[in-house]
Amino acid sequence: MGKLLKYEFYNMFRNKWIIFYFLFFLLLTSTLFYFSKEPAKVAATLLQMVILVIPLVSLILGTIFMYDSRNFIELLLSQPIDRRSIYIAKYTATSLSLGLAFVLGVFIPYILFLTGVEGSKEYFLFFSLLVSGLFITFIFIAFAFLIAVIFEEKVKGFGASLLLWLYMTLIYDGIILFITIYFRDYPLEKPVLILSILNPVDIARIFVILQLDISALLGYTGVLFKQFFDTIMGKVISLGVMVVWTFIPLMAGLWQFRKKDF
Amino acid sequence: MGLWLSLPLILLFFTLSAKGETITVCPECKIKSIKKAIDLAKDGDTILIKKGVYKEGNILIKKSIKLIGENYPVIDGEKKYEVITVKANNVVIKGLVIQNSGKSDIEDLAGVKFFRTKNCRIENCIIKNNFWGIYFAASKNGVIKNNIVDGPAKIEYLKSAFGQTIETNFGNGIHLWHCKNMLVEGNHIKEHRDGIYFEFVKNSTIINNVSEKNLRYGLHFMFSHKDNYINNVFRQNGAGVAVMYTKHVYMANNRFEYNWGASSYGILLKEIYDSYMFHNVFYKNTTGIFADNTNRTVIKENDFIENGWAVRIWANSQDNLFKHNNFIANTFNITTNSFQNPNKYEENYWSDYKGFDLNRDGIGDVPYRPVSLFGYFTENYPQSIILSRSFFIYLLDITERMFPMLIPSKLVDERPLMERYRW
Question: Can you give the residue ranges of every domain in chain A?
Answer without folding.
Answer: 2-259
